[in-house]
Amino acid sequence: MTLYRAFSKLQIAKIFAVSRSTIYDWEIRGCPVRQPGRHGRPAKLDFEEVLRWHLDDEDIRGTPEQGLRILEQAIRERKAKYYG
User: Fold this and answer.
1) Which of 3, 17, 4, 2 has the alpha carbon at shortest distance from 82?
2) Are strands 45-46 and 6-7 parallel, antiparallel or unpaired?
3) Which of 6, 38, 43, 67 is the most exposed place for a label (fewest CB within 10 A)?
4) Nearest alpha-carbon partner for 17 in 77, 76, 84, 75
């Protein structure tokens, strides 16, 4: 069994430097949700799955490989800064 750190939509929004409503939009477009929210409990997302989905997203498709690596590093640094 693989262990993962679950993040709320608000935490993911903070890591990716976007609004929470953007995360809801991403979910509609297919962003993976590890555990859907229910009965007053927030949805949980796996950082690695969201990052993979984001880097493969059509909105940034066509970005040079070096640009994607820089973006990925910046996102990972924000994650480390806020959540270790």
Assistant:
1) 17
2) antiparallel
3) 38
4) 75
